[in-house]
Amino acid sequence: MKLSIKIKLEISPYAAAGIAAAACFFIIKKIRS
């Protein structure tokens, strides 16, 4: 149980950064087109 929570806390920042980057890319692409 503790191990899965630790893994989630380590992956979460990278997942959030990836989602934010994808959202920014989509918004920029939408504005330019």
UniProtKB/TrEMBL annotation:
Keywords recorded for this protein, A-Z: Membrane, Transmembrane, Transmembrane helix
Listed transmembrane segments: 12-28
Protein known as: Lipoprotein
Organism: Terribacillus saccharophilus
